Amino acid sequence: MTVSVSRHAALSSLALALAVPPALAQNANTAALNSVLVTATRTPQLAGDIVSDTLSIDAEQIVQSGAGSLVDLLQRQRGIQIARNGGPGTNSTVYIRGANGNQNIVLVDGVRIGSATSGAASWSAIPLTAVDHIEIVYGPLSTLYGADAIGGVIQIFTKKGQGAPALSASAGYGSDNTRQIDAGISGATGGEHALSYALSAGKEKSDGFSSTLPASSAYNPDRDGYQRDNAAGQVGLQLAKGHELGAQFLTSRLDFQYDSGKSTFDTRSQQKLQNLALYSKNQILPIWSSVVQLSESRDKSFNATGTTAKERSQIDTKQTDLTWQNDIRIGADMLQLLYGHRKEQVESTVKETERERTTTSLAASYNMKRGDHLLNLGLRNDDSTQYGGKTTGAAGYGYRINGALRASASYGTSFRAPTFNELYYPAYGTESSKPEKGRNAELGLHYSAGATQLNAVYFHNRLTDLLVSTSPCLVSTVDPKKYPSCVYNVNHALLEGLSLSASRQLGAFGLNGNIDLLNARDESTDKSLARRAKKHANFAADYSAGALKAGVELELAGERFDDSANKTRLGGYGLVNLFATYRINADWSALVRWNNLADKRYEVARNYAASGAKLFAAIRYGYK
Q1: What DSSP designation does 475 have?
Q2: Contact status, residue 466 vs residue 452, Cβ threshold 8 Å
Q3: Whose CB among 347, 520, 553, 624 lies 3.0–4.6 Å from 540's, allowing a Cys bridge?
Q4: d(Cα 354, Cα 115) in Å, to the nearest integer?
Q5: Distance between CA atoms of residues 448 and 20, nearest Å
Q6: Closest by CA position to 197, among listed 160, 228, 170
Q7: How many angstroms separate the CA atoms of 134 and 149, rounded?
Q8: Is residue 173 a part of any domain in this protein?
Q9: Does residue 113 contact residue 107 with C-beta atoms inside 8 Å?
Q10: How far are the Cα atoms of 267, 274, 417, 427, 485 from residue 433, in angstroms, in the given order?
């Protein structure tokens, strides 16, 4: 896909969207527009008043999806592709609009997670059973969240207590001797000093399958299983009307096996996620609300390929964040002022990476609403003790053409901070590495009428000072004994594409689909970026009959390259999934899911195995 082709496709799709009959527009269903989202503006806002390209996955959709993992759920969404080194418990990468895993931000209940050494989140360690809903915001959000928000932001919300005390639980079993169980309790008390609470815990274990294929030098035909244990909780206390104190936590431990070519030692890795946050929400004046949050996020990784010290490694990273957010209402507008202080620390068996850095941030944004016109402006400065100051800005405009059709245009700058590995890892990092920079422009049309939803978004994100690993590495001429450096800011890249999605309810039938056309290219070499397909699509159809809902899904991915030199080609693939849910009564429901019905053999990473045909069944209590 060339740039010219994608632009013509974008213009054609926008023209088609504009051709929607006016009669449909007059019957607009406000349900979608009235859903409330938080991530796009850091404050609750109606979806119809948000200029950014957003997507939300609610609790019902998560339950009915029957997805085996968070990564499985995300790869069915528009604008997202994944790569995985084996089965569900192994290392995974999530690409948003072609941006690399460390060029996106992941939040859990407002707490930023991820490793300071790799820059990416440990996706496989995040338990899907603890998730209530998910919000995805596409495009640069550095003005709101700082470094690394080049491709987008994914925020995961865990369950929150409300209403009368309620219990929930589920148990499931599937292929590869996969066992899953979880339980939770939530609720809230009334009165002047209302107390809300939610607590959940879960366990998942599987024998798995060999993570590598016979062609791999690390191949071992044994099964590579995993076990994940997790717990999450929230509590909030209303001290007085408009004043709330609260705390929330998430802890998850993942143990998984992988292949390293050794037959005498069972190679394995362990990942731990630990989040803790304390917050105070205060309505200081009728027009002024304040949120102060202190949080700590830990990402711990232990790896063993043998019994000696040289064959074991430990990397512990910690992020401590203090944020103070002030939202000031000015009529229908919102002025937001933000202060942030973030400290990153690393403890590791690789002593050279044991460093720390702090970043102090000041930001302001303004969201305006005037009739059918929407405008948002943002400006932010991040001052780091490691890479200095970075200023980012954004502007977006939206216009309601009629009751159902809305157009949007935006421009924003972003940056990614170099990771501790890219800075300090021996024989790899370069201490003088600078942040990567991004400049994104996009146009969108969004249509919501009756039971019909349509979206078309064209984006053009140009990256400069891209950090790449070069070969051969360079040795210091000043100090020849110093480790050679391999990472440099040398490349330019382009992330350009068209994202289309549609959904329609036809009586008992539900239809939805999305198509992504992506041009992710290294402009310095004119090569495609690794593991990004130029074409990716998902289609689904479901049928509801009383308590039964059943459906079929189709995932299509085009060919792509496994390496930056574009010499190793990965073939395209198509997968068919079946699912059915049955509501036994008001409290009990059952789920059956059959993934990869045709047992298709494919690769999303060279010489790493992907799941074949898998069957999973579960029974649930208390899930609405």
Answers
A1: P
A2: no
A3: 553
A4: 13
A5: 11
A6: 160
A7: 17
A8: no
A9: yes
A10: 33, 29, 9, 14, 10
- Say yes or no to pLDDT of 471 above 80: no
Judged by DSSP in three states, 125 sits in: helix
pLDDT, position 473: 72
- The residue segments making up the domain with residue 441 are 3-167+180-216+228-621
What local confidence, expressed as pLDDT, does residue 479 receive?
Answer: 55
- Give a yes or no: residue 110 inside a domain: yes
pLDDT-derived band of residue 590, with 50, 70 and 90 as boundaries?
A: very high
Say how many C-beta atoms besides its own lie within 10 A of residue 474's C-beta.
11
Q: Is 223 part of any domain?
A: no
**pLDDT value, residue 90:** 84
| Sign of the C-alpha dihedral computed for residues 76, 99, 8 and 395 taken in this order | positive
Tokens of 201: 């815990």
**Residue type at position 582:** Y
0.90 surpassed by pTM? yes
DSSP state at residue 223 = -
Closest CA to 226 of 123, 72, 89, 87: 89
Band the pLDDT of 33: cuts 50, 70, 90: low
Q: Tell me 476's DSSP state.
A: P
Q: How is residue 485 written in tokens?
A: 């450096």
Give dist(CA 116, CA 112) in Å, integer: 11
Domain count, the chain: 1
Tens digit of each residue's pLDDT (9 = 90 or more) over 324-333:
999 999 998 9
Question: Who's near 96: CB < 8 A, 6+ residues apart?
Answer: 79, 80, 103, 104, 136, 138, 151, 152, 154
Residue entry with tokens 């690769």: 603
SS3 455: strand
Check: CB of residue 24 under 8 Å from CB of residue 452. Answer: yes
Whose tokens are 């059915």? That residue is 580
- Tell me how far apart the alpha carbons of residues 460 and 10 are, in angstroms, rounded to a whole number: 11
Whole-number Å distance between alpha carbons of 560 and 543: 34
| Amino acid code (one letter) for 484 | P
Q: CA-CA distance, 446 to 426, in Å (whole number)?
A: 49
pLDDT surpassing 70 at residue 5: no
Coil, helix or strand for 309? helix
- Closest by alpha carbon to 458, among 33, 47, 139? 139
- pLDDT, tens digit, for every residue of 556-574? 999 999 998 999 999 999 9
Structural domain contains residue 33: yes
DSSP state, residue 483: P
Report CA 602 to chain centroid distance, whole Å: 23
Whether the CB-CB separation of 363 and 341 falls below 8 Å is answered with no
CATH number at residue 11: 2.40.170.20
